[in-house]
Specification:
There is one protein chain. With 192 residues, the protein is mainly alpha-helical. It has ten helices and no strands. Helices cover 83% and strands 0% of the residues. The termini are far apart.
């Protein structure tokens, strides 16, 4: 077997990081941050604790990497021209559906994130990483409601964000029992 090139070594390292992040996401989403241990995460990743520690010095550092990774994926969604900048009722509805799709596809991440936000000792650790993402979305909502002629675009954007937060939470709790289509129609009717 020939020695690996620097690029191959880097690719293997990135693959291992992803393996660890995916395992951490699964364990933390199912057991909570305080209930998750490095041993559980290493076992889920199929690696030793020592190897995990060679990638992440602590559970807190692993959580920070996990939140950053999730926020980067969400930010990539924002760059989609069809999803990120609604300009009509139809594009608003499309943005809303795409957001729902993102949350459903990444349900473990959003369940973990929501749970962490609700823990008083944790929200301060993840809030700075999430702030940029929240500001991006809020900016898009404000611009949309300004263009629509809202009397108070900031308040309407905040209200819309609160409705979305509730929708996402309900979808995470009981996705099969939620009347999604009817609720989406009402949201579009109210805000678009």
């Amino acid at each position: 077997m020939s020695p690996k090139t620097q690029q191959q070594f880097q690719e293997l390292r990135e693959q291992k990081k992803m393996q660890i992040l995916n395992a951490a996401l699964k364990v933390i989403a199912n057991h909570g941050y305080n209930g998750a241990t490095i041993s559980m995460i290493a076992r889920e990743a199929g690696i030793s604790k020592g190897l995990l520690y060679s990638y992440y010095e602590s559970k807190e550092q692993l959580l920070e990497a996990l939140i950053s990774f999730g926020m980067e994926k969400a930010a990539a969604f924002m760059e989609d021209p069809d999803a990120g900048k609604p300009h009509s009722k139809e594009s608003f509805a499309a943005m809303l559906r795409k957001m729902i799709q993102m949350v459903m596809q990444e349900s473990d991440f959003w369940r973990m994130y929501t749970t962490l936000l609700l823990q008083p000792n944790m929200s301060g650790k993840i809030q700075p990483q999430a702030q940029k993402f929240v500001e991006q979305y809020l900016g898009i909502y404000i611009a949309y409601f300004q263009k629509k002629g809202s009397r108070n675009p900031m308040a309407e954007a905040m209200l819309f964000g609160a409705v979305l937060d509730g929708l996402m939470f309900d979808l995470m709790v009981a996705p099969d029992q939620y009347p999604l289509e009817e609720v989406l129609e009402m949201i579009v009717e109210k805000f678009a």
